[in-house]
Amino acid sequence: MTARTFATIDDLQAGLLDASYLADRGLASVLFLALKLEKPLLLEGEAGVGKTEAAKAMARVLPARLIRLQCYEGLDVAHAVYEWNYSRQLLHIRAAQEGTVSEEELFGPEFLIRRPLLEAIETDEPVVLLIDEIDRADDEFEAFLLEVLSDFQITVPEIGTIQAKRRPVVILTSNRTRELHDALKRRALFHWIDHPSLEREVEIVRLRVPGVPERLALQAAAFVQGLRRLDLEKPPGVAETIDWAQALAALGSHELDPDLVESTLGSVLKHHEDLQAVRDAALADLLEEARVAAG
Ligand SMILES: Nc1ncnc2c1ncn2[C@@H]1O[C@H](COP(=O)(O)OP(=O)(O)OP(=O)(O)O)[C@@H](O)[C@H]1O
Ligand SMILES: [Mg+2]
Question: What is the pTM of this model?
Fold first, then answer.
């Protein structure tokens, strides 16, 4: 399988749009460069701005196999790279009962359980390697990752060094719960994804919720944009706007009204305190603003 190549940033941007992802010029440029320069790309931004989806969309458009490493505190090599299949080794020893089993035999490739990083390095297929929420992993793991991403190789002491046959497209995402090391940033291209402008958010909603009434999409997006200006625990991302528009459209609505907003606001705000604050103070004003914005 060969992946598509893109001659220009515009080509890639159009391809992503076909794959239902609306990338602005800045994001499309840096994704284009990641392909051209074969460099990892670090995407940072608030929750729900489309970081993870950018990697998925790249996999759809290339096309390439998406291999995802979800990071969390305590993530270690055994879960990210490989581990030995002990039960299989044990079975092998039992089966060989009479004969002797050499160490070399037991620590061969067939007894290796491949985790996402090794899988991405070893495979012949085009791959998008998504290292999601790297800020949740520990420092130690980040340092290890640095080596992998510099040389695109992994060493298994018992087997040797495995070099990537072709470099995977690597996309790292971070919510910035902690600052990443400069060394990692130096090796990667970087892009900050902001909340979209009203116009873009409406476009994204129309892309993701086909058939949504135009006016409803506009009002919902404008309302959410208003929510983001408040001082909330968890400002809603694009994901919430899409969910809300979907819910509103499913109810057969064509525009927002106070009761409708009241009864569906739970798809937008997931914090009890946020919901309470908006219901108590801001709802009517935001609704009025959204109606004005929608003309
Ligand atoms: N530019 C976009 N074009 C199309 N869909 C988008 C875009 N941005 C966001 N979305 C949609 O919004 C939802 C949330 O996006 P995604 O999960 O990628 O956010 P995220 O930045 O990874 O959030 P988190 O930090 O919470 O993981 C997805 O369903 C995605 O389809
Ligand atoms: Mg994500």
Answer: 0.93
